[in-house]
Amino acid sequence: MADDSLWSRRRLLGTGAAPWPPGRRDLPHRLWPSRRIRQRWRGDVSSTVRHNISSFRAQDWRPHFSSLTNGAILCDLQSRALHFWSEDGTIYRLYPTSIPLNEELTRLGRTEVVDKVVNPPWRPTPSMRERNPDWPEFVPGGDPMNPLGPYALYLSWQYYRIHGTHDTRKIGRRSSNGCIGLYNEHIAELFQLAKVGTQVLLI
């Protein structure tokens, strides 16, 4: 498309400062990201944008779920973090996320993973198209303009996903139209850990 089109990579994927991870002292050792991811974080971020991601800490699943049947995902919108517990309780992961732009786009409550899709295609919802009539009706999976990244967990709520993003500046920010976004490295890991039927709670 033409460079002056309103449908642009910057408009679709969002703008803003680059992300910054929580300090290592804020996370238990077993939760600290791999050296490769730490190096990427450090390489992408300047000291002026370190507050994109609110401080977040490990949580216990028990206040939020009655059991870990099929595993559990907690999306904490206040701290902008996603927590995952495996069914047997031996695996726990904590990831920074993007969250919805405003309360109107935010849905809270219980849902579950109903599908797992590699290179998910993207169709803007009717409300998105109404707000942004210049957006395309469809973007195929794998397209660099696709805002869902390489993996997506589809939730039982229509249109809601937990997915990756090619625009890492969105993580830690209010930047989505309702979905929960992760770094591509993190959604790749969560995609392997979660399964159809995994419980999901947004608070």
From TrEMBL:
Ribosomal protein among keywords: no
Keyword terms, alphabetized: Cell shape, Cell wall biogenesis/degradation, Glycosyltransferase, Hydrolase, Peptidoglycan synthesis, Transferase
One GO cellular component, as annotated: extracellular region
Known pathway: Cell wall biogenesis; peptidoglycan biosynthesis
Domain L,D-TPase catalytic: 71-203
InterPro entries, alphabetized: LD-transpeptidase (IPR050979), LD_TPept_cat_dom (IPR005490), Transpep_catalytic_dom (IPR038063)
Active site, UniProt feature: 163, 179
Positions in coiled-coil regions: none
PROSITE patterns: LD_TPASE
GO molecular function terms attached to this record: glycosyltransferase activity; peptidoglycan L,D-transpeptidase activity
Keyword Transmembrane: no
Pfam families assigned: YkuD
Protein's GO biological process: cell wall organization; peptidoglycan-protein cross-linking; regulation of cell shape
Homology family: Belongs to the YkuD family.
Protein name as catalogued: Uncharacterized protein putative in bacteria
Organism, scientific name: Rubellimicrobium thermophilum DSM 16684
